[in-house]
Write a structure and sequence with these properties.
CATH architecture of the domain at 14-115: Alpha-Beta Complex
Order of helices and strands: HEHHHEEH
Largest sheet: 3 strands, antiparallel
Number of helices: 5
Shape: elongated
Number of strands: 3
Oligomer: single chain
Radius of gyration: 32 Å
Structural class: alpha+beta
Strand order of the largest sheet: 1-3-2
CATH superfamily of the domain at 14-115: Ribosomal protein L17
Strand content: 5-15%
Distance between the termini: 81 Å
CATH topology of the domain at 14-115: 50s Ribosomal Protein L17, Chain: A
């Protein structure tokens, strides 16, 4: 039993699975969007976000760590020069998974894994506004004609007698 074992095996041996993940992450960072199965997208998301975090650090050590995982040097350069600076103010959540439906051939659920593109504004905690203090009521009384009031009262009395 696989209790407390994280990660999906995806029906592959370890070496095949690791090679597939490296290829998928390289393709994802190169094209910034890939279509794959749900399970693969969920696994790739965490690896890709770690690579973007390395790109945000930008030092030599993180460059070498990223280059040891990503297959192409041009993709490493793209990660550190264009992708990572986009997310300098963002503290995580660089990717999005959109479910597409099922693949016709083998009925596998498909998803699109893509980089989040919208501008991010960090949320800051704002103090709750103080409860408004009730201002004294200084409204002028509405002037009502006495004839209208007496007519309404007479109608209510008539209805009460009729019942």
């Amino acid at each position: 039993m696989r209790h407390c074992k994280s990660g999906r095996r995806l029906g592959r041996k370890t070496s095949h699975r690791e090679a597939m993940f490296r290829n998928l992450v390289t393709s994802f960072l190169n094209h910034e969007k890939i279509t794959t199965t749900d399970a693969k997208a969920k696994e790739i998301r965490s690896i890709a976000e770690k690579m973007i975090t390395l790109g945000k650090r930008g030092d030599l050590h993180s460059t070498r760590l990223a280059a040891s995982y990503i297959r192409e040097k041009s993709v490493v350069t793209k990660l550190f020069s264009t992708i990572a600076p986009r997310y300098k103010e963002r503290s995580g959540g660089y990717t999005r998974i959109i479910k597409l439906g099922i693949r016709q051939g083998d009925n596998a659920p498909l998803s699109v894994l893509e980089l989040v593109e919208e501008e991010f504004t960090p949320k800051t905690r704002q103090a709750k506004p103080a409860a408004p203090v009730a201002a004294p009521v200084t409204a002028k009384p509405v002037e009502v004609e006495e004839a209208a009031v007496s007519q309404i009262v007479d109608e209510e009395v008539c209805e009460a007698k009729a019942d």
